[in-house]
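re: ur question from earlier - yeah i can do the single chain one, its not a big deal. heres the input i used so u can compare w yours
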Amino acid sequence: MVCVKQGPLLIVFCIGRVPRLTQLAPGAMADLRVLTFNVCGLPWFRPPLSERAALFCRRIESSDVDVAMFQEVWSRHTLNVLRSGLPSFRHVATRRGIGTRPAGGVATFSRLPLARVGFRSYRGLFPRTGPLSFRLNRAINSILQGVLVTELEGFDIAVANTHLTANKDGDWSAGGRYHAFQLAQLNRLHTTLRRHPPGVTILGGDFNLASDGALYPHIVGHGTWHDPFADSDPSTFHARFLPPGSAPHRIDYLLVRGDASVRLAEPWFTEPVTLDGGQPEFVSDHVALFIHIGLPDS
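and the output i got, formated as tokens:
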């Protein structure tokens, strides 16, 4: 069976039958496993995505991940590459952006049925100071980026997938020229998610904000969100792709809000792998983050 549900600017693909979370007795726990990964979908990155995806999709497909959030899905081709490599993730949520491109470059893949899907961009946000070219470029970034919120059908669980604008200066201090701009994007992100009904919400993506920067308290909503990686604090951008002398940071996050217990939190794709050409390469410039959480029956 193949069905496509398509509304205005909303695309949800459903192929075949997908197992549902089992209804549990009151007070019982269910498991949910979630991954977030910036796949580096930019066309200039080498090796090309099709070669890299053959490896990282194989691991995800063979894993017990229930929901995978991807960033930098900037083209229909990239979306199709991921879909072909993840056949058991039969539910794919995006919003249509420019042309047929996924809005915000974000897509959420799920082995579980999905319900409502919404997208809100960071349109209208830009730095108020700095050269005109700097402000215009960041304004364009805000138009192209945003947050995709997907609900799991039959459960009070939402998954939010976001990609914020990159800080090209690498200055995450309160005095940096990106500070007020990135704070405005964070405020819109959290305002959007506060509108979601109470329950469990998982927020993941590429925030482009260092965990040791001035905006970290705003990332976690001053304690509203639980950060399972706060203690281990793994770097999520490979040092190889940074300018000489730059230190890697954790700029990707997987956060939890609501009544859920984190059973496992670990980074994925931390080391280079051997591609078909025989040369060890990273499958992306980013590291993926994975969490396994326990959920009370709702």
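Residues 188 and 268 are 29 Å apart (CA to CA). not sure if urs matches, ping me
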